[in-house]
Amino acid sequence: MTGPTFRPLPKGIYTPLPTFFTPTEDLDLAAFASHVKFVATAGTVPVVAGSAGEAAHLSPSERIALIQTARQTLDSCGLNDMPIVTGVGAPSTRETVQLAKQAKEAGADYGMVIPPGYYAGALQANGSEALKKFFVDVAEASPLPIIVYNFPGVSAGIDLDSDLIVDVVRSSANVVGVKLTCASVGKITRINAIVNSEEFRAQYPRLNPESEFRIIDGYIDILLPSIASGAAGAISGLPNLVPRTCVKLWELSNSGTGTPEYREAQQLQNRIALVDGLLQKIGFSGMKMLLHKKFGYSALPRRPLLPSREDLGDEWIRNPLLVSLIEEEEKLVSMS
């Protein structure tokens, strides 16, 4: 009897998938499956039940349904080797571990864990020892490899510094990556300088010794400098709209400085940064409205979040900068 297939955590572009709801706030799994196919066949890795997926509004059974739907969709598209990253963070260590175990059974390949923000003050007291222990305890008990997720904006301002992240990696071989939604290129550089050094890897071998520790940038508007500092990719909302264009930026950015491709990467990075700036302002509800305008999915978030206004959605989808990227995407689709 063979064991489960190991799907390595790849370098590249990751798409944090929204969770779509019906007018009665039930999961719209048909829309979700359609969107998984759209982003995955374009070459991006799906991230299920993260911040953009309104994980805080989902029950454990709903998270499982999303993972199962994503896995079934990927397999039906012939993307059997494509991994699924899923948010498993919860307010307590116990619940986070339970979610990780359930996610593994449902078909997830990696668990992404955000700091629990409800008791942020207590977790950051005494040198953040409780915070470090939270991540290590989860990683040691989880059947899924763990990605530490730093996003101060949705975790009561908790901002994991590079020293703490390195300490967590040092303490558990099951921590295989970090997502940094804090726009700190310096943090990427510091973590990479230590964790992916030959000395560190010799002293603390990873889950897969042939694979580097993955540092994933949380903003695609700084992808080019992030790669230069050691980032292995980006998890960004923009690939929900133009996944192939974002993959193109990743490929061009890895072409080597001084080449025509790298100069093209600089130009595309500028265009993408301007559009990503718009998306950061309109938030999760705004992204859902844009996807509603482009694909017809429901624009409804779960209450207490309110949907964005239709007239604003019309204004956003006609933004010349976004229109230009969508036209770029359509060209890439026609070439595929």
Quick overview:
The protein is of the alpha/beta class and 336 residues long. The chain has 13 helices and eight strands.
Structure description:
The structure is a single chain. The protein has 336 residues and is an alpha/beta fold. The chain has a domain of 229 residues: TIM Barrel (Alpha-Beta Barrel), CATH 3.20.20. It has 13 helices and 8 strands. The protein has an 8-stranded parallel β-barrel with strand order 1-2-3-4-5-6-7-8, surrounded by 7 helices. Helix 1 packs across helix 2. This is Dihydrodipicolinate synthase.
Keywords, separated by commas or semicolons:
single chain, 336 residues, alpha/beta, TIM Barrel, eight-stranded parallel barrel, 8 strands, globular
Helix content: 40-55%
Task: Report the count of strand segments.
Answer: 8
Strand order of the largest sheet: 1-2-3-4-5-6-7-8
Most strands sheet:
8 strands, parallel, barrel
Task: Give the helix/strand class.
Answer: alpha/beta
| CATH 2nd-level architecture of the domain at 12-240 | Alpha-Beta Barrel
What value does the average pLDDT take?
94
Organism: Hypoxylon rubiginosum
Protein name: Dihydrodipicolinate synthase
Q: What is the topological layout?
A:
Elements: E1 12-16, H1 29-40, E2 45-48, H2 60-76, E3 85-87, H3 93-106, E4 110-113, H4 120-123, H5 129-141, E5 146-150, H6 162-171, E6 175-180, H7 185-195, H8 198-203, E7 214-217, H9 223-228, E8 233-235, H10 243-253, H11 260-295, H12 310-317, H13 320-335
Parallel strand pairs: 1-2, 1-8, 2-3, 3-4, 4-5, 5-6, 6-7, 7-8
Helix pairs in contact: 1-2, 2-3, 3-5, 5-6, 6-7, 10-11, 11-12
